[in-house]
Design goal:
It is a multi-pass membrane protein. Pfam families: DoxX. Belongs to the DoxX family. Its main location: membrane. The N and C termini lie far apart (84 Å). By secondary structure, this protein is mostly helical. Helices cover 74% and strands 0% of the residues. It has helices spanning 6-31, 38-48, 54-74, 78-96, 109-124, 131-134, 144-186. Helix 1 crosses helix 2 (38-48), helix 1 (6-31) packs antiparallel against helix 3 (54-74) and helix 4 (78-96) runs parallel beside helix 7. It has one domain (6-186). It is elongated and about 85 Å long.
Length: 188
């Protein structure tokens, strides 16, 4: 039996840190744990930022974070876990992007960092201190990395694209309504 090296320990720490944070955020959405709002409250928030239907969006985000994070921490099904978490964080980053980069201003820094960590783990693999390694990498084959990341990227692009189109439509309708109100007020 060979000794574990620095790479294995580093990957374990990265998996536990990023995976634990993701899992905690997901349980906030799903169950209201750790001061979260559960499916109902998170669903209302999701609706307010253009992800509809809200409850379904909250469930999907919660599962991507809690499930992906837990699997990353365990080092199990690492390509799929990393891709799912990265997709959820890409959706979150989209919401925060109008606020700029830095988290202190409500920006996308935090979500992007978690997405990059999850993607990096999906690509690098979990290391030898993982369930994937213990199980002979049954759920961590080379072909799974591009498949999981590609499928997640496609689904994320569809979901975020639909959200953006919905928000654009709502903005145009609001502008048209304001124009109609001005026209009525000023008789133009």
């Amino acid at each position: 039996m060979s000794a574990y090296d620095r790479r294995d320990l580093g990957l374990l720490l990265l998996r536990l840190g990023a995976g634990g944070v993701l899992a905690a955020h997901g349980t906030q959405k799903l169950f209201g744990w750790f001061g979260g709002h559960g499916i109902e409250g998170t669903g209302q928030f999701m609706e307010s930022v253009g992800y509809k239907p809200g409850k379904a969006s909250a469930t999907a985000a919660g599962l991507a974070e809690a499930g992906g994070g837990t699997l990353l921490a365990l080092g199990l099904a690492t390509p799929a876990a990393g891709a799912a978490a990265a997709g959820g964080m890409a959706g979150a980053a989209t919401v925060h992007a109008p606020n700029g980069f830095f988290n202190q201003e409500g920006g996308y820094e935090y979500a992007a960092t978690l997405a990059l960590a999850a993607t990096g783990l999906a690509i690098a693999g979990p290391g030898r201190l993982s369930l994937d390694h213990a199980l002979g990498h049954v759920f961590d084959r080379g072909w799974m990395v591009p498949t999981a990341l590609g499928a997640t990227a496609a689904v994320t692009a569809l979901v975020v694209g639909a959200r953006n189109r919905r928000l654009d439509r709502a903005e145009k309708e609001e502008q048209a309504g304001l124009f109609d109100e001005q026209e009525a007020l000023f008789g133009e």
